[in-house]
DNA sequence: GCGCGGATGACAGCTTGATGACAGCTTTGC
DNA sequence: GCAAAGCTGTCATCAAGCTGTCATCCGCGC
């Protein structure tokens, strides 16, 4: 984890750097806004510690610029001011946290850990198969890059087939997956219907639903 | 955005709930650890505000349990203690932030905005999308440059849709985000109502709320 | 060729969503 | 405190389009 410390008071910056270094962070120090910009442009950081009082301007401008540019690196602001307005202002301008000087180094360390912690693993429900791009959580379907709309039943069927890709699914099992008890009297023909409708929408995706007579259906790569 | 407030002092909890409600958050209050667990098991929250001193135990246990269980919901800890050890301890146990009592309600609000914003992958409160310009902290909305007034619920809905832009949000999820438990008996038709009202206000913004029958709604660029 | 399982187009019913009007309640301004 | 304004949510009505049935056609395997 690499951290950028934007702070012009050498003592503070070096103390922080040493302390964070011991905690496993690699730190770069930037004593001016210009240095900070140069560093941030060259490499990415897991987080930025930003003093607001700098010799060549206010850290707020730096923060605002980065956010406007779409940069989401977590920023922890250091401030000498106590007023609630200032704190609220900093947070609303895009800071993720702040610390009032003088601060305890252990606390800086803990806060940076909290900020950088949530970088890791987001559960992805997305499946990409040849020209097919299906995201179960967003219920979105793309075929060859183009968004395709599908109804609830169609998506449910697709979901089932994808989850069992490469395996033959009997109509009974598909039926069980698509309909609850209250729909038990729906004709089995319905499955065939939805397979047909899905096939039409998956046209040209490189993925095909094969028919296996007397056995069921299987989704797999085309060809 | 739905928030769980775990706090046994009724005054504090209700003041926070009222203040956050005005800011567009839907709040549930849990006065005990048992209540908190029950709530958290039943529904998901955008963030949890957690007092450490509770009648049936320490909030730390609750926090630790949730993290062990793999839950990453942002947690903001309320504490009466000043010691650095306590603060560091809370952060390292998985809290994302803390506030020392007594705290300013505006600050709680700003910190929760920062926490939920980060979760939604945003670095600042302001979002500009085509002709739509929305600022969550100022609760202000502009369409094609012109200021548009919108009510709290409308803004809350918009905020939710923007945070999940591009994905289909089921009415249930939108409902959970807009209403807490005390409003559980509100008809689901209400969502449709607010979608209609929002659509009217977003007219000509280049952003549209698409209906996906049986699935939910999705906010995306028009076209 | 025949039989059976599967494919598919059309359609009617019905669930789901849209929307205008209204009553209750909250907030705001005085 | 009071009154007015505005926000909220319910209801009823209307529109849309998803669903599943039916009938018919296709094609594989025997």
CATH class of the largest domain in chain A: Alpha Beta
What's the helical proportion of residues of chain A? 25-40%
List segments of chain A where confidence is low: pLDDT < 50 over at least 5 consecutive residues: none
Give the helices and strands of chain A as they follow along the chain: EHEHEEEHEHEHEEEEHHHEE
Q: What gross morphology of chain A would you assign? A: elongated
Beginning-to-end CA distance, first to last residue of chain A: 46 Å
What is the domain tally of chain A?
2
Task: Report on the biggest sheet of chain A.
Answer: 5 strands, parallel
**Beta fraction of the residues of chain A?**
15-25%
CATH architecture of the largest domain in chain A: 3-Layer(aba) Sandwich
Total helices of chain A: the number is 8
The CATH topology of the largest domain in chain A: Rossmann fold
Quaternary structure state of the chains depicted: homodimer
Superfamily at the CATH H level of the largest domain in chain A? Response regulator
Major β-sheet strand ordering of chain A: 2-1-3-6-7
